[in-house]
Amino acid sequence: MPLHRPDDDRFHDQCGVFGIFNHPEAARLTYLGLYALQHRGQESAGIVSTDGVVAHVHRDMGLVSEVFDEETLAPLVGDAAIGHNRYSTTGSPTLANAQPILVNYRGGFLSVAHNGNLVNARTLRRRLERSGSIFQSTMDTEVLVHLIAAERDPSRDHQVLAALEKIRGAYSLLILTRNALYAARDPRGFRPLILGRRAGAAVVASESCALDLLGAEPERELAPGEVLRIGRDGTIETLRSAPARAECMCVFEQIYFARPDSRLFGLSVDEARRRSGRELAREHPVEADCVFAVPDSSNSAALGFSEESGIPFELGLIRNHYVGRTFIQPGQEVRDFGVKVKYNPVRSIIEGRRVVVVDDSIVRGTTSKSLVSLIRESGAREVHLRIASPPLRHPCYYGIDIPDREQLIAAKMSVPEIRDFMSVDSLGYLSFEGMYRAVGDRDRHCDACMSGNYREPLEPGIEEKTAFETPILTHA
Ligand code: SF4
Fold first, then answer.
1. Which CATH superfamily is domain 3-248 in?
2. Ligand 1 atom index nearest CA of 448
3. In what order do the strands lie in the sheet with 236-240?
4. H-helix or E-strand spanning residue 419
5. pLDDT of residue 199
């Protein structure tokens, strides 16, 4: 039986990181933090904890709920921990590529959790291999570990800072050592990272929703380029403040990746998405009986569309939240099964009506096409598709798994051609202007997957998706 990803045509999320220092139940709180960040990566999960003497680790393939239980959490003792949810954007989905990475070197142990993608990893890795480094995984993150270990200066702070100076691209990083937790955001600020407090403990997470779950008080987002050192006594020291680089925050974090209950890049994600829905309604008005979202990431945009247009919002599509990473596909005669297992149209809402369907983006187009056909089979009189972002025409090299141009429908077809391919009565994408009225200043954001403007230069050969050789370890 073929194994099928139920969300083959969607973006795959990237990674979520969580860290805590100075709490007696550090690993358990990290486990909860990873739960809140599950939407950012469903392929593998891991936690490294320390009591200030040794490090303890558990990593495995699967969801947080599959990877951890009482038995696997119990050995993760100590008052400091970092955790990671992964969806691979470089390197293959094997246990060897699960994070946090944990190594021992002359300075003691070192553990790293990374969200993002380094754009000069291939060059750095070749250089390190020529000077004798042996790599265990195919991840770009391992390059950073080698760079830290290769620094001659005995100061750990210096080693971390010097290694960070050599890497380029997108990173929100947590680095755990015996006595400190380092938190770093790349100078462009592609990926989010937020600092909070829970009693005497310092907490760092990809998104504020993880702090909410723990009852931690959000303190502030790390500035692009900032590097913090959190000490065992809970002190927080800024080792590097923001270098003068133009910001380049990933606009798709606001549009799709982040949870709507998070605050990100200074904005409420829900509010930004509602604004994008309102813009969409203004740019592409339509006469219709109801509007509904492709849940869940498009819910806020669909509400915004409804508010602006006056067309009632309905729950026309129901999403099955219990679909795992893969399921066993029955025989080929069950058409559209991949979409059907995840979404079910509500016939009583749809039948005989003119419907507006709001989605955040279209990648390959196959999921949207199948959804439209399910909606039509449920009796829709007209189907109008509205997309709360401009067309996706380019891959992402900054940590999001967007397919190559040949697979992106908007790279191959014009909007009218896509409309015909989808068999919808009308199709409207949000303009760049509309999107930035919703999420803020264009100069501060990356939109390379839509515009092709890669503001952080790419190294030659980066378009080859598998950057490195096959890992030696495939299972521990
Ligand atoms: S290319 Fe797209 S997905 Fe990648 S960082 Fe830029 S905006 Fe985000």
1. Aminohydrolase, N-terminal nucleophile (Ntn) domain (3.60.20.10)
2. 1
3. 101-105, 108-118, 169-176, 180-185, 227-231, 236-240
4. helix 415-422
5. 87
Neighbours of 426 (CB within 10 A): 14
For residue 117, report the distance from its CA to the centre of ligand 1, in Å.
11
Mode of pairing for the β-strands spanning 327-328 and 3-4:
antiparallel
Coil vs helix vs strand at 21: strand
pLDDT single digits (tens) 118-136: 999 999 999 999 989 889 8
Question: Is pLDDT of 69 > 70?
Answer: yes
Please state, in angstroms and rounded to a whole number, the distance separating the CA atoms of residues 174 and 75: 21
For ligand 1, the distance from its centroid to the CA atom of residue 20, given in whole angstroms, is: 28
Residue nearest to atom 8 of ligand 1 (CA): 250
Name the residue ranges covered by the structural domains of the chain. Answer: 3-248, 271-440
Pairing, β 3-4 against β 101-105: unpaired
Percent of the chain with pLDDT over 90: 77
Q: How remote is the CA of residue 400 from the centroid of ligand 1, in Å?
A: 7
Structure tokens at 258: 């982040």
Is 386:273 a contact under the CB 8 Å cutoff? no
- The verdict on whether 290 is a catalytic residue reads no
Answer whether 354's CB lies under 8 Å from 287's CB: yes
Query: What is the pLDDT, as a whole number, of residue 324?
Result: 58
Pick from 3, 62, 6, 8: nearest CA to 343:
6
Q: What angle do CA 237, 241, 243 make, to 5 degrees?
A: 165
Q: Residue 328: what pLDDT?
A: 57
Neighbours of 470 (CB within 10 A): 10
Q: Are 316 and 292 in contact (CB under 8 A)?
A: yes
Q: Where are the alpha helices (DSSP H) in 268-395?
A: 269-283, 299-309, 337-340, 347-350, 366-377
Q: Are 402 and 392 in contact (CB under 8 A)?
A: yes
Residue with tokens 């297992």: 341
283-303 exposure pattern, b = at least 16 Cβ within 10 A, e = fewer: ebebebbbbbbbbebbbbbbb
Name every protein residue with a CB atom under 6 angstroms from any ligand 1 atom.
190, 250-252, 396, 398, 400, 446-449
Q: Which CATH architecture has domain 271-440?
A: 3-Layer(aba) Sandwich (3.40)
Residue pair 392/367 in contact by the 8 Å Cβ criterion: no
Catalytic residue among 15, 248, 250, 449: 15
